[in-house]
Design goal:
mainly alpha; Ribonuclease iii, N-terminal Endonuclease Domain, Chain A; Double Stranded RNA Binding Domain; 2 domains; 3-stranded antiparallel sheet
């Protein structure tokens, strides 16, 4: 702790550094880390690197790994769980289960935000509770879990924490953009219009913000790709115009 910048130390993930905190989180993950530094890195928000330290990384690299691991493990599971389903329907299920919303839901159930390390100012602003931050952190934790314990450790975690979502998906979900379009056309309202509002963040990891509009009603969404941002905006707009 002594080598951390004071503003970072003030917001250090107290639940992890407190007595029993690491054990509690590892129990929720179903894995005891052989390399503690991997778990620490997975929980380190990029704001915690306001003062760069040699050998320290934010959780973005592990998030990159975890995103791929999650996709593989969910795809594997769906092939087993729905052996007669077509590729297109499996793809719809996969997209929903690895979405930011699905991942953030699991992170919230684990109270993952209480373990994050971030700049004090960010902590006070409630950044640890943002669903985008939680989703990114959980993917990073999954990446760390895979690198430390292998695919089987990651598989045990995913199949435990995603079980309710997989089993609760009686039929392949309709993609938010398709659902919004079907709803609007059925009512003679025409097609939704999507507009790029802004692009933020570093070149290697931009964040796109998109507006979806139907008549006089609009909603926005964000994502690491334009497609993801449009999907989020469509879901938000559908909820607004349909009341669902």
């Amino acid at each position: 702790m002594a080598d951390l910048h004071p503003m970072v130390a003030a917001a250090q993930g107290g639940a992890l550094t407190a007595m029993g905190g690491r054990d509690a989180l590892q129990a929720r993950l179903g894995h005891v880390f052989g390399t503690d530094a991997l778990l620490d890195e997975a929980l380190r928000h990029r704001s915690a690197l306001a003062v760069r330290r040699q050998g320290r990384n934010s959780n973005e690299r592990l998030e990159f790994v975890g995103d791929r691991v999650l996709g593989l493990l969910i795809a594997e599971w769906l092939i087993e769980r729905f052996p007669k389903e077509r590729e297109g329907d499996l793809g719809k299920r996969l997209a929903a289960l690895v979405s930011r919303d699905a991942v953030a839901t699991v992170a919230e159930e684990m109270d993952l935000g209480s373990y994050l390390t971030l700049l004090a100012e960010e902590a006070k602003a409630g950044v640890a509770a943002r669903r985008s931050v939680l989703a990114d952190a959980l993917e990073a934790v999954l990446g760390a879990l895979y690198l430390d314990g292998g695919l089987e450790a990651a598989r045990r975690f995913v199949r435990t924490r995603w079980a309710a979502q997989v089993e609760g998906m009686a039929a392949p979900p309709v993609a938010p953009k398709s659902r919004l379009q079907e709803w609007s056309l059925a009512r003679g309202l025409g097609l939704p219009v999507y507009r790029l509002v802004s692009t933020e963040g570093p070149p290697h990891r931009p964040v796109f913000r998109v507006e979806a509009r139907l008549g006089e009603t609009a909603a926005e969404g964000s994502g690491v790709s334009k497609q993801a941002a449009e999907t989020e905006a469509a879901a938000a707009l559908f909820a607004r115009v349909s009341g669902k």
